[in-house]
TrEMBL record:
One of its GO terms (biological process) is regulation of DNA-templated transcription. Gene3D superfamilies: Winged helix-like DNA-binding domain superfamily/Winged helix DNA-binding domain. It holds the Pfam family AbiEi_2. This is HTH marR-type domain-containing protein. Coiled coil: none annotated. It comes from Salinibacter ruber. InterPro entries: AbiEi_2, WH-like_DNA-bd_sf, WH_DNA-bd_sf. GO terms for molecular function: DNA binding. Signal peptide: none annotated.
Length: 356
């Protein structure tokens, strides 16, 4: 279903609020020029809940980059408003990343699918679990598709630098036409911009990473899960790395194993490796691999794009993917993967916004 326009959003929000607080709510959509002076409006709605007023900003997309821009708009609106107005963000459907960003920024939100987290002096409304009523048909242009994501990986590996588009294409191994299309899409989402010389830069690397993470799906790679007899996982990881090296198989550790190499974050049970190709039966026998997802302690992954191998490093004689890729891949892992991802982000991906 197509995302509603502002008029329908106004009606839906009012209906939801009246249901939640027994009719004591009124939503008013502002015109493009809302002041007596004819100045452009700062926000989209005013929401009256009993004696409290909220200023509402509506966005027709709930992706993290859109959410972040809307939050900045709400903050600007608050600076220019009077009294105790409170911010409210409205989207068709709020995803996990967006909800977390709103929580960090102390922004209340409602989605038109019926979910909400709204906190005022008089009300605390929290609704979750309602399905997305506005899923898009088809596949929208995705700057984080497997090959396209090489560009974001290249930029995030060098977050404080600026590059000509031609240089990005050459270094990321992507054609110039393709690079132009992906950069344009990232610019539309305000995830990259250009300096006065036309060089591409990332103003907020953390936002670019969050936007990629939101779209990333580890299960889209070809994953073989199996078991190799071993008393402890670190020794197993190193033994497998030596076997792949000897067999001439390009590899790189990722997931919990790579997180351990990078941060020593907790012991792990599953050793995950990207491989450039599927293993021959002889090599499987040599390492003692038994294919069986039940109780697997080894995940061997043939990636959907070779870009995962770019920017890799070696620690303790084991090659591993870049911390950005480790962080993304942990999204698809069990055990203490969420904590491991937080550790990676804190130690390696703790960027600041650029001033220029």
């Amino acid at each position: 279903m197509k995302a509603p326009d502002e008029a329908e959003a106004e009606s839906r929000v009012e209906r939801l609020l009246q249901e939640w607080i027994e009719g004591r709510a009124r939503v008013e959509r502002l015109e493009e020029e809302n002041s007596q002076m004819g100045e452009p409006r700062i926000w989209d709605f005013t929401v009256q809940l009993r004696d409290e007023t909220l200023i509402g900003e509506y966005r027709r997309s709930g992706d993290i980059s859109t959410i972040s821009r809307a939050i900045e708009q709400l903050k600007e609106g608050l600076r220019q408003s009077s009294g105790d107005d409170r911010p409210l963000l409205i989207v068709p459907f709020m995803g996990e990343k967006g909800a977390r960003r709103c929580q960090e920024e102390k922004i209340s939100w409602i989605d038109l699918s019926g979910n909400a987290h709204l906190h005022t002096k008089s009300f605390l409304i929290h609704v979750e679990g309602k399905p997305n009523q506005f899923k898009q048909k088809g596949r929208p242009a995705n700057p984080f598709a497997p090959k396209s994501s090489r560009i974001s990986r290249f930029l995030l590996a060098r977050p404080n630098q600026r590059f000509r588009q031609k240089e990005i294409a050459n270094q990321a191994g992507v054609g110039r036409g393709w690079t132009s299309k992906v950069i344009r899409r990232l610019e539309e989402k305000k995830l990259v911009n250009r300096d006065e010389d036309g060089r591409v830069k990332v103003p907020d690397p953390s936002l670019l990473l969050d936007a990629w993470h939101e779209k990333y799906d580890f299960s889209k790679h070809r994953i073989m899960k199996g078991t190799v007899a071993s008393k402890e996982s670190v020794g197993l990881m190193k033994r497998l790395a030596r076997a792949f090296e000897s067999a001439g198989v390009e590899y790189a550790a990722t997931g919990l194993a790579a997180a351990w190499l990078l941060t020593r974050f907790a012991r792990f049970r599953i050793a995950t490796f990207y491989l450039s190709r599927q293993l021959e039966e002889g090599l499987k026998r040599k390492i003692g691999l038994r294919e069986d997802p039940k109780g697997a302690n080894v995940w061997l992954v043939v990636p959907n794009d070779e870009g995962v191998f770019y920017e890799n490093s070696t620690r303790e004689d084991v090659r591993h993917v870049h911390p950005v890729q480790v962080y993304l891949d942990l999204k698809g892992h069990p055990e203490r993967s969420e904590e491991a991802a937080s550790s990676i982000k804190k130690e390696y991906l703790n960027w600041r916004k650029s001033d220029g």
